[in-house]
Design goal:
Rossmann fold; alpha/beta; six-stranded parallel β-sheet; 25% helix
Length: 206
Amino acid sequence: MSSSRQTILDRVRRNQPAALPLPEVPGFDRPLAAPFEAFSAALARMGGTVIDPPSEGSLTLHIRKRFPTARVICSATPEVHGTRDASLVGNPAELEDVDVGVVRAAFGVAETGSVWLSEREFIVNALGFLSQHLVVLLDPAAIVPDLHHAYRQRGFFEARYAVLMTGPSATADIEGVLIRGAQGIRSFTVIPVTAPAGPQAAHHAA
């Protein structure tokens, strides 16, 4: 004798509508004459900052000058040598004292000023949220026009964890006043730097 549950499920299966193919989602293509400029403007509206890369010298020194009082700089990219290597962090709690976190984003979104990061870029996901300040290296050529194009990127289908980050954390529920850096990173800085050649670059170009 079948249970009531099984009886209900059987009836649902017998009365399902015929399967139909999923509709095609349009690309919503809109040409952008200057993708990075559009990205920078959108990021600024969300409280983020774009700074120029160093004209000479290293990125590491450039970031140290930007944050002169930082004691712990944790880098998740070989392009910047911090005081702590994210690949050597065994426990996310070890990042609680990080002043500046440094990562390279896979791509940016011009429409929203967002950057896409996964567990591969962060190495330790908590780096993007326990750091006081986050510095993101972004290849200006790796910018998609909008979220429609962003969600078609291969990374969304391969990553176990992914996030689109747009500016520092913020809240506006305290007496209607916008407060930045309330729950997470206090500042969000993007540096346009061409991605290095190699396997990492191939992943970023997906």
